[in-house]
Design brief:
Length: 125
């Protein structure tokens, strides 16, 4: 009885392996084809996204250059401040007003350059 069970079990195993050998290559091929198509679609989408980002980056840079030109060439004294009132940037006229180099103004508290009369106005603003 045990011998017969071993033979039957072996025959089932052999049949399953043979059956798998016949079906697996087709399934693998279909899966590979599907994965390849999916990857190609993802690649196309990514290439479009990259082009969109490059275009957006170009527009942002152009606006940054325009802003920078406007800021630097303004006849008024201009300062860019952080939320907590530190000077991030000053144009040439802003530096002249304070009689300082542009680089030495960075990170100064804007409050420290205001007169007592104008300090309350600035804080209100």
């Amino acid at each position: 009885m045990k011998k017969r069970n071993k033979i039957s079990a072996q025959r089932i195993l052999n049949t399953d392996v043979e059956s798998l050998k016949k079906r697996t290559p087709k399934k693998k091929l279909l899966i590979a084809k599907s994965n390849t198509q999916e990857l190609e679609q993802m690649n196309t989408a990514l290439e479009l996204k990259i082009q969109e980002l490059i275009s957006t980056n170009s527009r942002v840079l152009e606006h940054a250059y325009q802003y920078s030109d406007f800021f630097d060439s303004s006849p008024s004294s201009c300062f860019t401040l952080s939320k907590d009132g530190k000077i991030l940037r000053a144009n040439v006229n802003g530096a002249k007003l304070l009689d300082k180099e542009q680089s030495s103004i960075k990170d100064l508290d804007f409050d420290s350059i205001l007169s007592k009369e104008t300090e309350s106005l600035f804080k209100y603003f």
